[in-house]
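Input record, target 12 of the design panel.
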């Protein structure tokens, strides 16, 4: 049920990206945002990443042409996995809402989401997890 809203993104649905992990840095290829080679010009707004250090995934959301935000999909109000859809993160447990940049839009949550420092190059996004 928590992932139901994620499927509202559109035809591309939920995509769990592959990453390389090394010394507290996850390397995500920007190509993970491409829907398919056949769908030229189509791209995902976000990808999810399963990580070893948390039972909750990280969502990397594209907020601009070459701008991204990586947030842990854990509601700061209570231990509940967020859903993503409609340009926001929503907590299915108590209704908190967060912007794609991790800021609280609607309570009961009072704290912003945990976000991660990012670096970029032409091909990859580097997510600093420590």
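The sequence produced for target 12 reads:
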């Amino acid at each position: 049920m928590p992932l139901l809203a994620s499927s509202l993104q559109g035809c591309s649905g939920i995509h769990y990206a592959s990453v390389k992990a090394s010394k507290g840095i996850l390397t995500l290829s920007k190509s993970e945002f491409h829907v398919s080679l056949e769908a030229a010009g189509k791209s995902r707004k976000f990808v999810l990443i399963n990580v070893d250090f948390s039972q909750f995934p990280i969502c990397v959301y594209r907020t601009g042409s070459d701008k991204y935000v990586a947030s842990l999909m854990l509601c700061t109000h209570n231990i509940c996995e967020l859903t993503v859809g409609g340009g926001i993160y929503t907590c299915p447990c108590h209704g908190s809402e967060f912007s794609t940049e991790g800021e609280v839009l609607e309570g009961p949550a009072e704290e912003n989401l945990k976000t991660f420092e990012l670096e970029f190059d032409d091909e990859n996004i580097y997510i600093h997890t420590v």
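Residues 1-12 have pLDDT under 50 and may be disordered.
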